[in-house]
Backbone:
């Protein structure tokens, strides 16, 4: 008997592999998957040679925009992103954190104006490698593990 | 390009700082000038601060400008639940400049993005208070004849002390050396040590008010150890009297030393220091008005 597939294969769509297990549902939220009607497979705590355990998300017939995908870098900068067409990997992508993050996360400072006024949050990415951000308004520095999504 | 608003001392580069200092020196020579006739300045104090507000309002009045505004958010429409955005949009329709103090951090940056007229941050929570920093820089420049290569000893609450954090930032262009004197609980945050490390700014840390920290200094910058900063009042009682400057402690200090304090003081500078010619905090407070005149005119594009 051959290797058993842990998650069913995708005909067309986007496969996001090697997601740290703690980040899987954050990725779901960042890509707003809960609002899609497409067929979605989410696997978590799967065995991985590389990571020990991992998460995987497959979304049928959906090809995300670059800026949507780059949001993932906030919580999972090292995922494998495959665009699947006709059961084949048509394209491999890397997610890249943009220079600025607008709206998708909140500032951890309760006294920050963004948590008290109806306005968009805005963060400067000061370290793309380590994922360190700074609030454009109150200037608080936020580390990757402290990121709280809106 | 000249900055449109002053939100953070970091908005000002070296050239901006010198332009303001030179202008402030001219205002100190002659502060009553007709430069703002016909202009309206709004002072929006969502959080009360009598000292800062009076300094700004006097600065404007002595230049023949007019003032609108409020001194407490209880008397503003914020008390009715109006958003900051709406208040700023409305006021920037009326005034030529907005001076704002607000308890929320980042509020001044936000206001500067909404406003069509320049905004001066007069304090946004524990974040920034750049006109205080500019008046500190002016006072240091005035008393030392230069900002370069000075040793600055800062004493007191270095953890929450906003003036200290901004002073480190403002002095960073001028090759300073810092002595940080503070109780364990209120020592200088790592991010400012990193800031110094990155710029090769030497510093030493003291937990006692050592004579060495006083005697090596060109500027002794005292701050208040505030009771409200302590969660444990026992801790406050333990440290409150450790960082008190008395006249006799200045006996072996440098000739050019000046003692500064952002005021108000409680007991951290003993009254017996007041008569010492090295005490300069009241003159420093007065300098606030000239510095603010310089900043206001600079942002409004008024030649001074």
Residues:
């Amino acid at each position: 008997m051959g290797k058993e597939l842990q998650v069913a294969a995708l005909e067309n769509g986007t496969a996001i592999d090697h997601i740290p297990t703690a980040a899987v549902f954050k990725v779901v939220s960042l890509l707003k998957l809960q609002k899609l009607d497409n067929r979605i497979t989410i696997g978590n705590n799967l065995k991985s040679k590389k990571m020990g355990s991992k998460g995987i998300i497959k979304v049928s017939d959906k090809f995300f925009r670059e800026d949507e995908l780059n949001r993932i870098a906030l919580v999972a900068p090292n995922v494998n992103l495959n665009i699947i067409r006709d059961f084949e990997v048509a394209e491999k992508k890397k997610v890249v954190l943009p220079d600025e993050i607008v709206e998708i996360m909140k500032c951890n400072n309760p006294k920050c104006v963004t948590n008290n006024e109806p306005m968009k949050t805005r963060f400067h990415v000061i370290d793309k490698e380590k994922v360190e951000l700074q609030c454009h308004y109150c200037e608080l520095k936020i580390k990757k593990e402290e990121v709280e999504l809106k | 390009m000249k900055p449109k608003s002053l939100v953070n001392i970091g908005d000002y580069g070296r050239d901006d700082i010198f332009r303001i200092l030179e202008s402030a020196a001219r205002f100190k020579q002659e502060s009553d000038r007709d430069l703002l006739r016909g202009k309206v300045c709004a002072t929006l104090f969502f959080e009360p601060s009598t000292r800062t507000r009076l300094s700004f309002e006097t600065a404007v009045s002595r230049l023949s400008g007019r003032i609108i505004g409020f001194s407490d958010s209880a008397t503003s429409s914020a008390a009715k639940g109006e958003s900051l955005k709406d208040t700023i949009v409305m006021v920037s329709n009326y005034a030529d400049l907005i001076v704002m103090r607000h308890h929320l951090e980042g509020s001044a940056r936000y206001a500067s993005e909404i406003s069509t007229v320049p905004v001066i941050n007069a304090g946004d929570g524990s974040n920034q208070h750049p006109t205080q920093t500019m008046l500190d820089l002016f006072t240091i420049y005035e008393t030392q004849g230069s900002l370069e290569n000075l040793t600055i000893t800062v004493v007191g609450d270095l953890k929450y002390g906003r003036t200290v954090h901004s002073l480190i930032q403002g002095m960073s262009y001028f090759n300073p050396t810092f002595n940080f004197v503070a109780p364990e609980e209120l020592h200088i945050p790592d991010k400012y040590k990193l800031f110094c490390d990155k710029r090769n700014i030497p510093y030493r840390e003291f937990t006692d008010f050592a004579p060495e920290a006083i005697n090596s200094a060109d500027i002794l910058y005292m701050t208040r150890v505030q009771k409200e900063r302590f969660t444990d009042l026992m801790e406050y009682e333990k440290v409150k009297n450790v960082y008190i400057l008395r006249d006799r402690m200045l006996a072996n200090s440098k000739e050019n030393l000046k003692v500064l304090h952002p005021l108000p003081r409680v007991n951290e500078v003993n009254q017996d220091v007041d008569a010492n010619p090295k005490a300069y905090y009241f003159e420093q407070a007065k300098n606030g008005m000239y510095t603010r005149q310089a900043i206001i005119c600079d942002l409004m594009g008024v030649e001074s």
Summary: Residues 101 and 122 of chain B are 5 Å apart (CA to CA).
